[in-house]
Please model this.
Amino acid sequence: MNNFEFKNPTKIIFGKDTISKLSEELPTDARVLILYGGGSIKKNGIYDQVKTALKDISHVEFGGIPANPEYSVLMKALKVIKEESITYLLAVGGGSVIDGTKFLSSAALYEGDSPWDILKDSKRTEVGMPFGTVLTLPATGSEMNSGAVITNAETKEKLGMGGPGLFPQFSILDPQVIQSIPQRQLVNGITDAFTHVLEQYMTYPAAALLQDRFAESIMQTLLEVAPTILKDSTDYNAASNFMWSCTMALNGLIQKGVPTDWAVHAMGHELTALYGIDHARTLAIIAPSHYQYNFEAKKEKLAQYAERVWNITEGSIDDKAYAAIEKTESFFNQMGIETKLSKYTDDFDGTAEIIAKRFTERGWLGLGEHKSLKPEDVEHIVHMAY
Amino acid sequence: MNNFEFKNPTKIIFGKDTISKLSEELPTDARVLILYGGGSIKKNGIYDQVKTALKDISHVEFGGIPANPEYSVLMKALKVIKEESITYLLAVGGGSVIDGTKFLSSAALYEGDSPWDILKDSKRTEVGMPFGTVLTLPATGSEMNSGAVITNAETKEKLGMGGPGLFPQFSILDPQVIQSIPQRQLVNGITDAFTHVLEQYMTYPAAALLQDRFAESIMQTLLEVAPTILKDSTDYNAASNFMWSCTMALNGLIQKGVPTDWAVHAMGHELTALYGIDHARTLAIIAPSHYQYNFEAKKEKLAQYAERVWNITEGSIDDKAYAAIEKTESFFNQMGIETKLSKYTDDFDGTAEIIAKRFTERGWLGLGEHKSLKPEDVEHIVHMAY
Model:
């Protein structure tokens, strides 16, 4: 097991009808900015629950944060924060709204020339404006971690940021919100969380027995509840396990003491930036090719995953490992996710070269758990995913 | 899944040679009281590592905190805290030293007449004197939770305390400390951690699929590493998984959203108070009888545990459930732990009645996950454990 440090101070408030607890978590003298997305919270009743809970707390609103939170939109929200003397941010939404709120938490206290530098120069946020979240879409785990990914439409870039100042003070997780999520988003959420676990698990054996079993537990649980959720999103037992699995998939716990990969995300982000493909779907496009291309380096963990998560007990290590990649791809397919780029765009020719070139230009010269994947490897992997 | 709240702000610093990081975690202007036990840290080098790390930080020491931290000894430490104007506590030890330090953290800021009232009246500690830990004995999980159990030799009582103010600010976990732990303590640690998981798992199915799998993961890992650790405690892979499993067994995570039992601990504490039997061994004495006595209420989870942890796949639910109890008892026996009270004392006659009477007098009238076990049930269970 590798040495590690772990600290996650976010308070989780989980369960039925918990949104009403919101006011207990906010300072009574706070001036709150509520941030949300396209307005679905006004149709499904979450907005009303939040407004009721905040009736005695001073607040204003900023809606319209898009999927893949866009820098130019967030800069408008930053203007509101300054003009309205906001002291506390409240994200009501999924990963995009929460990630956007994290950027604002950092930017609100940033003293440099341009907040874009936080992303461009990978500036770590030690202290941000305090914020909480009401999660409306389980998927990214952003509700209990200190990372965010922000998109710049102008430059077609997706860049990450983070730091200990960006943990939510609290996150309210009411699994009942799942009832009003469109099927497409549910499928994306399951795929996103599942792939998060793979990124922290599908590397090489590192004698981290407990972390391996925790990672497998999350994947087993997601596989177990996925069919129920997609058939009946009012099933509270399935919804609550789905929601908690998404949070646990990326709250830092399973990555501690183990090597991590994240090459699937690095390549996937480029597909979203270039073609606007849903984040989760880009992961499902890249993952199978990535594991095939890096088969020798990953086959021991692929075989362990085959045995423990897919109950594949017959055959050699290679047999099991291949079968596990196939099982993973067909799991995505069965949920209705296409795993080839050509199913999303006719304009895919040259994509592999473009992405490889971008990595070279940005100086991203070593991806994966060994930091050994070069732009030419990226080119191969993306090609395999056509 | 039940509703829950979860917040655990303790910073974990885990791995080889991490004790040297101690000074980074303490405020530079702190006046530190180092608390430790019987002095084994002076033989195994841990004391020297701590002293080296604290060379530039003002500190005094208080040694001699016994196993099952004793109120009268802690009151002497409290006097030192006041006389020396201590601002920060540092526990260097196992669960007893850490639990004692938690009591002192609370008592140092307590404004009532007698600190014993914190225990007697179950007063929740919202704010305590800040403290950190250097863990020398993996077992209790006290290094990453906010609970403590204190013993009063005079009244032969063991009472619990807790509250959000009692999380360590940081805990340093260097698995190399395991090398110098006597076999008896290692066996106790494995048994203690394993039983902690059972208390939070062996109840009834509550549709908490992920929590169940996490609990099973910890037990599987403990079973996997136990033989290696007992054979060769210098095996770092086994030691690190053992240490991290003990912490995860009782840091709050696996108990969230599920019913918990803790009757084994409630009865076990009485055996320690009456006979001075090692805490872990009292759990191994009580657990098998407890599960047999409450078989009908627990058999579904017992059967799930049989399948997933012990790979018992044949037979009816009852068959599997019984087999799991047997496997658990023989796991304790194989490590050299006797699971009958009569192996520890000749003076056991009447113990069941005494313990039942104590529960009645204290008003502890409903133990277990259904709060349905009455003193007469306790009497039966302890009798079965003779």
